[in-house]
Amino acid sequence: MGLYGSPLGRGWWWVIYFKINMDRIIRIFPTPQALAESLALDLINKINEADISVNPFTIALSGGNTPKLLFSVLADKFARSVTWSNVHFLWVDERCVPPEDPESNFGMTNEVFLGRTDIPQKNIHRIRGEDDPGKEAERYSREINELTVQKNGLPFFDVILLGLGEDGHTASIFPGNEKLFVSDKICVTAVHPSTGQKRITITGGVINNSTEIIFMVTGKNKAGIVNNIIGRADNKKQFPASYVKPAEGKVLWYLDEEAAMLIKE
Ligand code: 6PG
């Protein structure tokens, strides 16, 4: 376990991090704002340090509420800190709604972040939530294949940003769909178990093919599931997010104090 100062300068706030093992790092922040600022800086550094001489930097984003703060910090503080033409943005999943719908992951990200920077439109690869889900899952699989490097026969992303549902889902891989972690497909359709909302999601095989998987989780309503997945709870098998284990690479958990309150016990 280690204590060290914020990369934004000492004395502002402190981060506690656990290195559970070589491929899992947990960083705990006092507030969602502190988490978002640190993660934004880490992402910017990763992008600026990446070798893009051969392949562009690819990052797959999640939706939902948690990443909104990160996206606004990226736009507010780092819009001019990166040569965005070197970065391609894709999505981990999307709700099957048009981009102007308040439920749209692309719509939210574009409003809070992408649309407030000079990222070239051709670098933004959204899932067309308004189209036929089955056809769009196939089309988006082709777009991912054309853009990304292939590794182990699957697309490779430099970074995958994930969220975590209270039911242990991640991306749109819901409890009962754990088989998507052994699927050779790239994208599939899914249905949200409680809302019935249609979704398009990348599969677990693609997620675990990345070298850097970042979970961003905040709020006390997530403390129980976080403890189930990375704490000492023993019934882990129930939750899709437990299957996020990159073959080569690491999982970084960015948690706020509330989400981490049970694992620290
Ligand atoms: C989505 C996401 C999903 C999300 C979790 C957590 O489209 O909803 O990609 O996997 O990350 O549901 O959502 P919150 O951040 O809203 O709690």
Question: Would you give an account of this structure?
Answer:
This protein has 265 residues and is α/β, with parallel strands linked by helices. The chain is 26% helix and 24% strand. The chain is built from seven helices and 13 strands. A hairpin with a 2-residue loop joins strand 7 and strand 8. The structure holds 6-phosphogluconic acid (6PG). 6-phosphogluconic acid binds next to loops.
Specify the helix fraction band.
Answer: 25-40%
Strand order of the largest sheet: 1-2-3-13-12-9-4-5
Beta-strand residue fraction: 15-25%
What value does the Rg take, in angstroms?
17 Å
Q: Mean pLDDT, nearest integer?
A: 90
Shape: globular
- What's the story with the biggest beta sheet? 8 strands, mixed
Give the low-pLDDT segments: 1-14
Protein structure class? alpha/beta
Order of helices and strands: EEEHEHEEHHEEEEEHEHEH
Q: Can you list the ligands bound to this structure?
A: 6-phosphogluconic acid
Number of discrete helical segments: 7
Q: What's the end-to-end separation, in Å?
A: 14 Å
DSSP, total strands: 13
